[in-house]
Amino acid sequence: MQNKKPDNIVPENKEGSSTDTSFSKQCPSIEEAIATFEDTRSRLLNISEWHSYAGTGTADFQLTDNQGNRVNRLAQEGDHFQINIPGPGSKTGEGFDWVQIMQIEEQRDRNSIEYTAITVRPATNPNNKEPDTAHFFQEQATSTFMVVRNGLEITVEIHGRNETPNLNSKHFIDKLRNVAIAAGAMLRFSNKQWNSLAKGILKLKTDE
């Protein structure tokens, strides 16, 4: 894989809304910065623990393989994760929203900028044969979750792009649900979720 700068990984926003969340902390030495990056990277890739990092009132994430089987390991390209957000679930998703990991991009060079980035898209539910995207956003939307070490600074970033409501479901109840939830997300109701998750992955206190 050809290395990219971290700011070139996030897809361009061509339609719909976009969101950007970022929190950083400084380490006192390069040795501690490297160790903190490794720990934060592991937390980033440990999808099934995201809810415990973000805290109460946030979505619950469960990593699965590409067949929808729950797995207890760090994320890999091609994996899915099911998302249980507060509120009504998706009929197509059997109560969950689903995304698939399209790319995991990394640069591991202690003498340069280091990063790990996970980019996901809304996906079908791998546990059934319904062709509809099981998510409140359409399939062109992306979310990129990233940890970056630049010298002594560690940053966790979350970027949403091309976020438009998913109106393509064959279930009318899902269309109504998707519009309501997507509208809430685009009105920045998702800020609490992503702020809490980014801070939790970085081990920042909620009041920082």
Report on this model:
With 208 residues, this protein is α+β, with helices and mostly antiparallel strands. The protein contains four helices and seven strands; from the N terminus they run βααββββββαα. The chain has a seven-stranded antiparallel beta sheet. The chain is elongated and about 55 Å long.
Please summarize what this structure is.
The chain is α+β, with helices and mostly antiparallel strands.
Mean pLDDT score, rounded? Answer: 88
Can you list the strand order of the major beta sheet?
A: 1-7-6-5-4-3-2
Please report the total strand number as a whole number. 7
Tally of helical runs: 4
Give unreliable regions as ranges: none
Strand coverage percent: 25-35%
| SS content category | alpha+beta
Task: Report the C-alpha radius of gyration, rounded.
Answer: 17 Å
Topology:
Layout: E1 17-26, H1 30-45, H2 50-54, E2 60-64, E3 80-84, E4 97-107, E5 114-122, E6 142-150, E7 153-163, H3 172-189, H4 191-202
Antiparallel strand pairs: 1-7, 2-3, 3-4, 4-5, 5-6, 6-7
Give me some keywords for this one.
208 residues; alpha+beta; 4 helices
